[in-house]
Amino acid sequence: MGAETELKLAINEEYVAHFRQLSLLSNKASKYEGKQQLINHYYDTADQQLHKQCVALRTRLKGDGCWLQTLKTRGSSVDGLSVRGEWEWPLSSSELDFTYLTTEVWPEALRNINPADLQVTLSTNFERESWHVTLVNGAVIEIALDIGAILAGGAQQPISEVELELKQGSVDDLKGLAHEIMKFIQLEPCDLSKAERGYLLLNIGNSCEVNE
Questions:
Q1: How many other C-beta atoms are found inside a 10 Å radius of the C-beta of residue 62?
Q2: Alpha-helical runs (H) found in the chain
Q3: Which residues contact 185 (CB under 8 A, 6 or more apart)?
Q4: For position 73, what pLDDT does the model report?
Q5: pLDDT in tens, 161-181
Q6: Which residue, 12, 55, 75, 122, has fewest beta-carbon neighbours within 10 Å?
Q7: Residue 205: C-alpha distances to residues 7, 40, 58, 154 (Å)
Q8: C-alpha 129: how far from chain center
Q9: 80 to each of 32, 108, 155, 191, how far by Cα in Å?
């Protein structure tokens, strides 16, 4: 199991170009990782049993043409800062592989689900541009700029977000870097994940939080 700690911030599209020009993204302490298109399909049962248990199960097509399966479990999110359990497995195709969902990772409340009952409930399609920033104390934080759309139930909603994910260091390092960025760019903490926003498009959102 990996514990993912990240800070999610909404950015107005008019500030995106200015964000890309921030000096902290172009100095020697920053490594540009490039852009890639990410297509994600989220699975659930017809009665949204996974969503009710605050579980997100998705497959992702990455820019390199490879598929990845990800399971995220119940976590907490306050002022955009979230911490939750996360597992990832490579896939040989776009098909969901239920054999990875062992009793070690799969919540007990969902163990009676038949794999055939899991269908794509919503999707996201966005371009991710990312940087790895090393702070003076050695902390490492990935900064991602996501621009695209959420698709659910025939409706869609734009994605315009900045995510800061802690790779090495403390939560204070994460908050400190966010504070530094917000001196130059207007950003708003966002506690709703892309998946949760998709469920809201389906009119079944609730207070549960499992981030993208």
A1: 14
A2: 16-20, 49-52, 171-181, 194-201
A3: 11, 15, 18, 19, 22
A4: 84
A5: 999 999 999 999 999 999 999
A6: 12
A7: 21, 19, 17, 16
A8: 13
A9: 24, 28, 25, 5
Assign 31 to helix, strand or coil.
Answer: strand
Residue among 199, 168, 189 at smallest CA distance from 58: 199
Vertex 64 angle, CA 60 and 65, to 5°: 60
pLDDT of residue 125: 97
The number of beta carbons lying within 10 Å of the beta carbon of residue 181 is 20
Residue 77 CA to residue 87 CA, distance in Å, equals 18
Q: d(Cα 51, Cα 96) in Å, to the nearest integer? A: 17
161 and 117 Cβ atoms separated by less than 8 Å: no
- Write down the residue that tokens 């911030």 correspond to: 9
DSSP 126-155: EEEEEEEEE-TTS-EEEEEEEEEEEEETTE
Neighbouring residues of 199: CB distance < 8 A, sequence distance ≥ 6? 48, 51, 121, 122, 152, 205, 206
| CA–CA dist 189, 193 (Å, integer) | 11
Phi, psi of 176 (to 5 degrees): -65, -40
The residue assigned the tokens 């996201």 is 124
Question: Residue 10 to residues 63, 82, 134, 202: CA-CA distances in angstroms?
Answer: 23, 14, 23, 21
